[in-house]
DNA sequence: GGCATTGAACTGACCGGTCAGTTCAAAAAG
DNA sequence: CTTTTTGAACTGACCGGTCAGTTCAATGCC
């Protein structure tokens, strides 16, 4: 069963082992033997729990993106329930995104590395998952336009992409090149950009 | 000689073949045989021209990033020489970035996919190349702060990352999901974001 | 012009090694 | 007794890199 606690634990161990290895070396140079070894599990166990290396990876993606989308959605909901504006909601989502990346940097690396590839087996899976994330942002943007909080000339889809990209790249650079800085610090810098308070003194 | 016209042509063919294949499938699942085949060249020729698969890839990266950095720098210089503001220069760089991605989408995909990996042979090469690009943006930002054109509270490094990320992700999404749109169109949407004219009606 | 020589450039069959995936008997866990 | 894990053995495909041999444009010579 999927819900057997024992099996669940094994799968989680395999996810964790796979995510870091694949983030480091890429999917195809990561071997199943390595994954099993790092998870502290026999190779046969991998194939008892997943049909193939590919399937292990796809479920890993689903698992990670599910967590991210949920975390973003919750951030937006909380901000709005708390009498915040839509821009406050966006700001909360930026923070939630940063916290996610801080907690699961390997997953983020791997996601970015695979998202725009063509001709991959899991390409359609990945596109579906992308929508799951971007839609959350788009919805808030659309709402903000509807309520007059944002300029109605903005291109919702593209702006959502750009915002996601802003957070993604800034956060990955942060992790890679200035890991000593705090989430607050990074969040403040990006907030400034979101609020358009970059221009002008 | 490196400058032998024949060799030059062969190398160019190999770059072109390699860049699309690696963008599609990633470095390690792209085989040297495939690269040679697509370039219309024998496998031995690859090894006559490059010491290894790795070196071919590194030189490919150097080649591509060089073009990008030059194009960005030129955009900034032209805008400034044309009596533009620093923000105009940033806007021009956004456009130059979009045009580059439009012309070399495969290279961009590959760059993004490899940039944040750890434990890779070419990691240090890639970091050096990243600086080459980001520095151009940072310089303009710093200038803009010095002249009072931008808020002096901004974090130059992080803002530069964020801007690059914004363009990168928006452009890749554009290519992948709405390829029919024009550069002008995308540029306009991102300009709006840069100028902070998103907020307010 | 015709002919020989040179060597950079290219060729492609081949080799040693690696890896995904399969199988299974036996043990452990619950 | 059932479910899950173990771990080792095996297979067949694939792949990076090598190298002895071939091609051919340029050069020099008569």
UniProtKB/TrEMBL annotation, chains A, B:
Task: Write down the Pfam families for this protein, in alphabetical order.
Answer: TetR_C_24, TetR_N
Q: Spell out where the chain crosses the membrane.
A: none
**Matching PROSITE patterns:** HTH_TETR_2 (PS50977)
Provide the alphabetized UniProt keywords. Answer: DNA-binding, Transcription, Transcription regulation
The HTH tetR-type domain extends over 8-68
User: What InterPro entries would the database entry show?
Assistant: Homeodomain-like_sf (IPR009057), HTH-type_TetR-like_transc_reg (IPR050109), HTH_TetR (IPR001647), KstR2_TetR_C (IPR041490), Tet_transcr_reg_TetR-rel_C_sf (IPR036271)
The record's DNA-binding region positions are: 31-50
Protein name per UniProt: TetR/AcrR family transcriptional regulator
Organism of origin is Streptomyces meridianus
